[in-house]
Amino acid sequence: MSNDILRVGDIDFSSRLIVGSGKYPDFQTTRDATIASGSKLITVAVRRVNITNPNEENLMDYFKDTDIKLLPNSAGCTTAEDAITLFRMVREATGLNLIKLEVIGDTAKTLYPDVMETLKACEVLAKDGFNIMTYTNDDPIMAKRLEDAGSSAVMPLASPIGSGLGIQNRYNVLFIKEAVNVPVIVDAGIGCASDAAIAMEIGADGILTNTAIAQANNPILMAEAMKHAVLAGRNSFLAGRIAKKPFATASSPTEGLVEFGQK
Fold first, then answer.
1. Are 180 and 163 in contact (CB under 8 A)?
2. CB 72 within 8 A of CB 46
3. Is the pLDDT assigned to residue 136 strictly greater than 80?
4. What pairs with residue 72 in β-bridges?
5. What tens digit of pLDDT does each residue of 46-67 get?
6. pTM for this one?
7. What sign results for the dihedral spanned by CA atoms 193, 196, 198, 200?
8. Which residues are designated catalytic?
9. In terms of Cα–Cα distance, which of 120, 119, 118, 71 is closest to 97?
10. Segments making up each domain of the chain, as ranges
11. SS3 7
């Protein structure tokens, strides 16, 4: 649907798929896969990928001739103070105001977010005027608190970052959708195109995926698959699925059946 727009704060996107920039062999492959995905937004871990130093190879240079926006994220930050300082520096260096906030609590195993530090950072950054997309756990209560703190979108994990396990609790995504009025973008754990389609079919407003594309045997082909999966899942949600029933229902009407062998 050409007019089905994802709005984050005051910015509109024609694609509901967001992609990451990590784990690719080089910036050119990152660009090629992003274009193949149809995404209009790519996340950048500022502590790992250069977008601020013009004297070194810079990812921003690879997207200057496109309409794809860069979304700096605070991957690697473990405190609210770290994330706040990082984003203030990024905005001063690049002018970028749309950000993805993530503050990690468990850096050793799960990469789960520290939701209390995330909330603290969100409150400060919102007062600074940032347009904030916030990575969080799949908890509707925290999602609502983040919305109240000024987050323009909440991004609950489907499963641990990079795990490829897909959505482990579909009901929590539904609960979050009911709890907030900002976009709900399923983030982390998407492993293949069907995972993305399922998330969209149950009502997610968008998908963010990185590892599933970047580490696929054919990243460009997987990027294309993700594009079509998000579109198909969204259209399926908008169309409205049939009700589930415990027994079979004939596809054809039973009235006026022709009785063979009768005159």
1. no
2. yes
3. yes
4. 44
5. 877 777 777 788 888 889 899 9
6. 0.89
7. negative
8. 100
9. 71
10. 6-239
11. strand
